[in-house]
Amino acid sequence: MTEDRKERQREKYRAADPAEGPLTTDQGVAVDHTDDSLTVGERGPTLMEDFHFREKVTHFDHERIPERVVHARGAGAYGYFEPYESCAEFTRAAFLQDPSVRTPVFVRFSTVQGPRGSADTVRDVRGFATKFYTSEGNYDLVGNNMPVFFIQDGIKFPDFVHALKPEPQNEIPTGASAHDTLWDFVSLQPETMHMMMWLMSDRAIPRSFRMMQGFGVHTFRFVDAQGHGTFVKFHWKPKLGVHSLVWDEAQECAGRDPDFNRRDLWQAIEAGQYPEYELGVQLVPEEDEFNFDFDLLDATKIIPEEQVPVRPIGHMVLDRNPDNFFAETEQVAFHTGNVVPGIDFTNDPLLQARNFSYLDTQLIRLGGPNFSQIPVNQPVAPARTNHRDGYHQTMIHKGTSYSPNSLGGGCPALAGADGYAFSHYAERVEGHKIRKRSESFKDFYSQAALFWNSMTDWEQRHIVEAFQFELGKVDAVHVRERTVEQLAHVDYDLASQVAQGIGVAMPEPGANNHKPQASPALSLDNLHGDGSIRTRQIAVLVTDGVDTGQLAQAQEALTAQGAVVEAIAPHDGKVLGADGNGYAVDRALPTVASVLYDAVLLPGGPTGTPALGSDSAAMRFVRDAYRHGKPIGALGSGVGILSTLEPEGLHIASGHGHVCTDRGVVTDTTTGAASEDFTRAFTEAIAAHRHWNRPPVRC
Ligand code: HDD
Fold first, then answer.
1. How far apart are alpha carbons 658 and 667 in whole angstroms?
2. Which of 52, 138, 144, 145 is catalytic?
């Protein structure tokens, strides 16, 4: 079935076409004047009877709703999900049975700490929430781009969020975790250590929502048609690979383009470059529940992929932008409690708390109990309830609203035993009512160490620098010290490097009994996806005198591989090519920066292009790209421009008349058309995303 039932449903809710009639009031009365209030004479007071004025201003006054208490800033898209094959072996969920059935989805990506208007590229967790509009009702997989969480029990969520959010006295900092209260909490709450390792890694500054993983985090439960359960962890893997920004670049992006990730998602979908993710599952038979050296119910732990492989079960494509941000992306209401037959909960205390919190939060945020009638939230499966009335009731229900009834013919009837209804997994539980964390949750450091051991040198370097940055912003020295003590339990070398950077003494080496294990699946170096350069943004720096033939040919070769190429010149309009023809410029240098691109190309030209070498903005562009490890290509006289940065430390492999590559810098001094060898080498450099082992440049 390929018809998109959600799309058909949305169609019914689209507002009247403004092109088909005049401006009206909310009551449909035509309006012929909306610029002046109704007054007594030209200079007199406004009249109460000006219903158009009152309605217009009143509606405006009420336009805002409370933003989400966390994950306030986000961007969303519609799409579809298709399973690869039937998953009947372990779940009866209808949307996971038939590869020919497409289930519509809406996905919202988000940051956590900052308000609605904060920047995209801050160091933070990213939300990755998916609403599947299945034939059996809505299923929400409300995950993050990191597979673990800060705390183990949801009763601590308000404490954690109060510590993470801006400080209460001055509401500083916005969209950042580098402040005293967060680290105070972290240093006193060692269960956060594993997640803090992820947060200090480059996973916290994704290049794109299209290039990050998603995780359901908790251990959930699949239930098959016979009622048999299997533990399951969900993974989204982006087809484009997992790629991140560099911290310095992320900070500059926050100023240059605070909408960097949101714009990237929007533009890719508009350009038909649809983001795609594979859904994978780690399955654990119930009888293996206690075969791990951690507790499956503890959301601060992963199941290493080397221990339980991720099995791909389907893919998701995001192919439509919303029509209206507020109506759809802002009003979408996710809830971990939205499950369908075949998917159930476990006793993970974090998940149990979430199952309360999400419904509760929508009541205040969306103003009443009828938010599931908002188009983006409506299931495509028909909803027949006995719920009535309440704010913003938009349905006209007929008949009785209680059960059992005879006056309404007994309708709606209860679902029969045909297997369609949700029936809770009949897990046997017994015990005393207690407030006590399970002993099996109390190893806080082994997996933090596993993460650290799994990182490459450059990833470890970035983690150390992130800790130094964050703790360097903490005023309370005892909080810095206590955090270093915590880090010493993870890895002594990590702790010493951080201590040295933030000027605190190292604690005595403590007993550290972690097995020296690593999980290669955790390193970004092993997550390059399909290795293509699709959708990478490549800046080609040009000026008058450029070899337009060479430029057009390089542009064509890169575009053919799905890259997005933009010609950037000191001014907008056109540059005059060496052949006397004009070449259209996409952006003027003053409006862009290297941080907004993935790679830079400097084409050559017999006369004018070297003029770029004396353009400080152009040279800053190239220098920044180099500093941030980005691929740089240069052809003909473009190589000469690059070489002006050699005294600052930029490295170019020497060689004339052939292609040379040095840590992502690809050069060819040959004039004329770019060779296939050049295109291949430059493409490989772009596919590798970043080149970390460059020496620092002096600037
Ligand atoms: Fe949460 C929003 C993800 C723990 C309470 N959470 C929210 C969103 C995501 C997550 C992606 C944004 C959804 C959207 O785009 O609208 N949250 C997580 C993950 C968690 C987690 C992966 C741990 C595994 N959350 C968590 C706990 C609680 C909450 C423990 C409370 C006890 N989360 C909320 C909330 C939010 C929310 C207050 C704010 C807005 C909303 O729900 O709709 O209820």
1. 8
2. 144
Are residues 103 and 7 in contact, defined by beta-carbon separation less than 8 angstroms? no
CA 126 to CA 212: how far, in whole Å?
Answer: 9
Q: What's the rounded Cα separation, in Å, for the pair 623 and 602?
A: 13
pLDDT score for 265: 98
Residue with tokens 């985090």: 217
Give the list of residues 6+ apart from residue 357 with CB closer than 8 angstroms, or none: 154, 157
What is the Å distance from ligand 1's center to 162 Cα?
14
First to last CA, the chain: 58
From edge to edge, which strands make up the β-sheet containing 564-569? 587-588, 564-569, 537-541, 599-602, 632-635, 665-668, 660-662
Give phi and psi for 370, each to the nearest 5: -100, 20
Q: Which two tokens stand for residue 455?
A: 């990182």
Q: What is the Å distance from ligand 1's center to 236 Cα? A: 18
CA of 268 to the centre of ligand 1 (A): 26
Over the Cα atoms of the chain, what is R_g? 28
In single-letter form, the type of residue at position 125 comes to V
In 435-581, which ranges are continuous DSSP H helix?
A: 446-454, 457-472, 477-490, 492-502, 548-560
Report whether 533 contacts 563 (CB < 8 A).
yes
State how far the alpha carbon of 483 is from the alpha carbons of 165, 503, 520, 640, 655, in Å: 19, 13, 27, 49, 50
> Which ligand 1 atom lies nearest to the CA of residue 216?
22
pTM exceeds 0.90, yes or no: yes
CB-based pocket (< 6 A), ligand 1:
68-71, 74, 108, 110, 127, 129, 142-144, 149, 154, 157, 217-218, 299, 332, 334, 350, 353-354, 357-358, 361
Using alpha carbons, select from 492, 473, 597 the residue that is nearest to residue 541.
597
693 is catalytic: no
Q: Which residue has the tokens 């339990």?
A: 489
Question: Are 235 and 281 in contact, with CB atoms under 8 Å apart?
Answer: yes
Hey, what are 163's tokens? 């510590």
Distance between CA 644 and CA 637 in Å, rounded? 11
**What pLDDT digit, counting tens, does each position of 116-155 carry?**
999 999 999 999 999 999 999 999 999 999 999 999 999 9
Residue 606 has pLDDT above 80, yes or no: no
In the structure encoding, which two tokens stand for residue 322, read together?
């919303």
For the chain, domains (ranges, CATH) are 74-177+208-377 (2.40.180.10), 537-687 (3.40.50.880)
Mean pLDDT, rounded, for 561-583: 93
The answer on pLDDT for 1 being more than 60 is no
* ipTM attached to this prediction: 0.99
Confidence of residue 607 (pLDDT cuts 50, 70, 90): low
The string of pLDDT tens digits covering residues 486-530 is 999 999 999 999 999 999 998 877 666 677 799 999 999 999 988
